[in-house]
# Entry
Amino acid sequence: MTRKSKKDKEALPKPESGETQAAFDAAAAAYAEAEAQGDMLQIIAPDGTIVRPDLLPAPEQRLELYRQMRRARHFDERGWVLYRQGRLGVFPPFGGMEASQVGTAAALTKNDWLFPTYRDTGAALTLGLPIARTLAYWRTSPHGWQMPADLKVLPFYIPIATQYPQAVGAALAEKRKGTQNVAMAFIGDGGSSEGDFHEALNFAGALNAPCIFILQNNGWAISVPTRTQTRATNLSKRAEGYGIAGVRVDGNDVLATWHVTSQAVARARRGEGPTLIETVTYRVKAHTVADDPSRYRTEADNAGWAEKDPVNRLRAHLLAEGILTEDGEAALLAEVAQEFEDALKEADSYPDPTPAEILEHVFAEPTPQLLRQQAELLAEVQG
Ligand SMILES: Cc1ncc(C[n+]2csc(CCOP(=O)(O)OP(=O)(O)O)c2C)c(N)n1
Ligand SMILES: [Mg+2]
# Structure
């Protein structure tokens, strides 16, 4: 339990009686102990040393995962700057969670479905969502609402947990069509307290849906820490209650997230059903670029997470193994930066949206109700 300052204490939910306080403290202690035990798969340790040599993917695959994490981090870092310059809307940063998003999404192909939350820009970029469209989305422009025809990435979900049952539906549709395609859905620790999460897991288990559920446990749901969000100390174990596979993985080790997810995807393609994967990571940044986490958490809460940084970890490993050189990295970073600036230029060139577009892209064929609402809206803005 790391509730240290008075300010922090006040921000946390207050138990009402002594008895509740005891239960609350016991749950928090159990959570801290489970965290300390680290009962999760890890392939490389935070300092870059190899823990499981038997599970190392091919060098090219390791390098590709590094490249994708760098693309994601670059987007996140430039996103903050663009926001401060008034060139990007409010967006939820994901810096520090790249391994959790890149390693999982990299296990898919473009024939598979991806259901990301607002936090999962890194996952969507990995599967191939164009950077320009992603920037447009966070500018609330309709150009960001159109998904490329060759990609089954849904727009970033803002309402918590709704994507989970919908992903099961997509997975079942693929199964019924006789394909081997799978659906992958993301959720947060907070989202895993929602009814939709539990319904989706049961639904997927009962009908053996080829669905991969990624539960990113980043320690926080806005200002609520996971240790008070739930009394459960290992969220992957929730899978047992629904008779499906559940795995806990170091969410800051991209080789581990990729390994575990690739196995789950292969099982789903073989008709062996869904998997819940808890990626244990940390939201080192704010909830959104407009949030100030110093109001509800302390340095003690964040302790140790900078050292577990997923990008530095893989970098240390690649340099030690000679898979990456300093020069090679400089070239890679220049390429990543150029790709982003080109995409930014493209996003800047999109015409400003018109009010009529607000209700477009909802259905392939607009319903009579939508057409009526669109006419009303236009009459209002024009009149
Ligand atoms: C159905 C619903 N309820 C509440 C909210 C408000 N809300 C936005 S983010 C958030 C916390 C979610 O935390 P978590 O699931 O852990 O995801 P994270 O932000 O950490 O990625 C809440 C409650 C919402 N968007 N949707
Ligand atoms: Mg969270």
Notes: Residues 39-352 form a domain with the Rossmann fold fold (CATH 3.40.50.970). Residues 119, 158-160, 188-191, 218, 220-222, 283, 287 surround thiamine diphosphate (ligand 1) (CB under 6 Å).
